[in-house]
Write a structure and sequence with these properties.
The protein is an alpha+beta fold. The chain has 2 helices and 6 strands, in the order αββαββββ. The two termini are about 25 Å apart.
């Protein structure tokens, strides 16, 4: 796939799956052997659980893509994530405070799917 198509896929994953919680669509975006290095998330099922956990903790979670660059099979996406802490996270009780997080994903693509990710 082209760099432009890879960038679009990375953006769509955040906007159409992470923002909505529609984890049933993950196979459209992730390879079966997907690995998220910073969080030790393995496979589509691991990614599904990871997103579900975030949505339980931050039910109004919303990610805004701020920019992207691509080179060959790598896409870098920087973003802002916002959500209200309404569910327990790692033993921390809900604070009902809004979290704003700026992050960067570095993703490697193969055959039109994301196979590896760093950052977050």
């Amino acid at each position: 796939m082209s760099e432009a198509n890879n960038k679009l896929l990375a953006r769509r994953l955040l906007e159409e799956v992470v923002n909505t919680g529609d984890v049933h669509r993950l196979a459209e975006f992730l390879a079966p052997d997907y690995f998220e290095r910073h969080a030790e998330v393995v496979g589509i099922e691991g990614a599904r659980q990871h997103i579900i956990t975030f949505h339980r903790c931050y039910p109004d979670l919303h990610v805004t893509v701020e920019g992207q660059v691509a080179k060959d099979d790598i896409v870098v996406t920087w973003f802002t994530m916002r959500g209200t802490h309404r569910g327990e996270w790692g033993g921390i009780k809900p604070t009902n405070k809004v979290l704003t997080l700026r992050g960067v994903n570095v993703q490697r693509f193969r055959d039109g799917r994301i196979v590896e990710q760093w950052g977050g």
